[in-house]
Amino acid sequence: MPSLEEFIREHADGDLVPWRSQVEAAGRFSLTLAEAEGTILKMGLLPARYQRNRQMLTIDQQLRLFRSTVAVIGCGGLGGYIIEELARLGVGTIIAIDPDTFVEHNLNRQLFSSLRLLGQAKVEAAAARIAEINPAVTLIPLREAFTRDNGQELLRYAHVAVDALDSVSARLELADVCDALNIPFVHGAIGGWYGQVLTQLPGERTLEKLYAGREDGTGIEKRLGNPSFTPAVIASMEVAETCKILLGLGRQRKGRKLTINLLDMDVEEIFI
């Protein structure tokens, strides 16, 4: 009987391993799909689902993404897109944190919502969706509200935290917890046609400067609402920032806020 590595090499197409072979390897050698994916990447091969990543990411970088853990705080308008894009990118473990269930007004923009799922916990829907699109990714659903008191426990295994919250106070608590844990924090906020993105690295206190004097305010989404497209745009930018942080690539938005006006198609960079 061939070893696991021999089996994988025999069933590879060049350096690509088809999904059916990954599933067969997991079943034959009593592995999880995640364990099979890790072995494939460690062998210098690439699960075929990621072949369109290969012009911008090396196999070693894909392995680093697989070994990474990202916490997404909020599974609504921003969070749904963030979670799905991280899973499709190949981030190995995603911690999804949200206490809420789907209600009817979520249907215009929240990726995981549907009529059938009204009343279901958002983190449960997230777990089901990721199991469907990339079951080699481990999604940890935590149905609870993020607070300063429980934050360090919820984020203790995360390499990066991504903001998909909807209030200033909750975001500031998240930023404080990330600073205490010495992990980067990617912030995004949306409202109507508008959005913003920034990255806070440990010790910077960027979000505190951004929201000085507005600590008790709500996010602008409560006043301006949100259409279907704004969350998708800002979430994608947050995922790009997260990918860069995990891989040490490019220039992060350190001390810089990017504001996006989709009505006029204007982008402005503000230094904080």
Automatic annotation (TrEMBL):
CDD domains: ThiF_MoeB_HesA_family. GO terms for molecular function: tRNA threonylcarbamoyladenosine dehydratase; ubiquitin-like modifier activating enzyme activity. One of its GO terms (biological process) is cyclic threonylcarbamoyladenosine biosynthetic process. Signal peptide: none annotated. Residues 50-269 form the THIF-type NAD/FAD binding fold domain. PANTHER family: TRNA THREONYLCARBAMOYLADENOSINE DEHYDRATASE. This is Thiamine biosynthesis protein ThiF.
